Amino acid sequence: MATLYLGSCDKRRRPTNPKEFLKPYHIDGLLLDKVTFRDDDRTKWRSFREGTDDAVENLQRFLFKAGFMPRAAFDGVFGYVTQAAVRLFQEYVRTMENFKTMVPDGIVGSGTMSHVDRWKNENKVSEWGSFTGENPTEAYTNWMQLLHKAKDHYTNNPGPILKHLNGLRKTYASIKPADWKFDTNDIHLIGIRRKQTESAVRRENDDLFILLINGMAFTFWGSTDASVNMAGRKHEAFLIEGQHRYRFGWHKISVEQKIYRALKPLDSRGVMIIRDWDDDNAYTDKDIKVKDRNGNLKGMLVNPSINIHWTGIGHSNFSAGCQVIAGKSYLNHKNELQDCSKFASTSYGGLTTSNKRTKGAYNVFTDLVLCYAPDKVTDLHYTLGRETSLEWSENFGAQYASDTLKRLKSV
């Protein structure tokens, strides 16, 4: 069979209006008028290419039945959701079935197809497709319980930052504590911020991200804090703790060679931030109290550019204020450590057609979001809190974040 990848179409299934077909996905910047797919692991565009049979639809039906593509349209077009589902299947084969030579690149050649045929013959179904918000893993339940405790605490004890937020008339994509939502039908991302009050010119990737989706919990790592080196100026932007709404989108939409899938504030005007007004290279309650030369509080600002994006393999903090996720490793739904370092690129330079590098664990994050999003859900709730909040749950505790980061960085 011919190799299948982004843009492949079955016979007579090529869309008559490619721009309209891509419209639900191409909603940002340079993508708006594109009639080709963005293959962001290879920094190139892929055209719609018609084949001679029904290979793509057959693949989509397999991915649906195996539990990787609940949103399958069976349209015979190898689009973004199909690519994400293929990568998740390849990652599952690599990690859960221990075929370590598999590279989750979203390309279906003879190697990947041999595993597809094996699964068909054995009538296999992935564990990832067997859980739901109503039938969750224990870890999912534990995290949801902690989120509800956080809402109760910060509604009644908001602290200086959230008190300031509560006093604002408009908060854009940021949400006041009393209005935080934790519906199991939604996608939730938890950010665990550490060492934000410690002065540092070069901030490390030393924070955690927990993705709660389809009744499962996956753990990633990176940074919630801005690096002075990336910001290139004083007054770095820090996203305030609390809940924010983020939509599916793209990062670096103004630079054609760097466009890739990411999350953006649901409200185009942005999310609420506090800058490091006192220039101590830390984020503290003092920053909300700094006044300008006229005696007015500088306070919070709304910022449209605080995305959730990739930070290489985690060696450097590629954040000027965004929330960034490393590609080196992650913990799966069973809390098992997964090493992506053999194929994860350190930066844009490693993403080319020839070297088969990918964004590693970061792709697992975005692919889970794209594939397992409930019907018509195109955004998630991001709740950012401090490490000390983990002490409220007997399931986690004060050492949870540091111990988990040691595991993730050990590969």
Automatic annotation (TrEMBL):
It holds the Pfam family PG_binding_1. InterPro entries: Peptidoglycan-bd-like, PGBD-like_sf, PGBDSf. Gene3D superfamilies: PGBD-like superfamily/PGBD (1.10.101.10). Residues 53-113 form the Peptidoglycan binding-like domain. It comes from the Bacteria. This is Peptidoglycan-binding domain-containing protein. The lineage of its organism: Bacteria, Pseudomonadati, Bacteroidota, Flavobacteriia, Flavobacteriales.
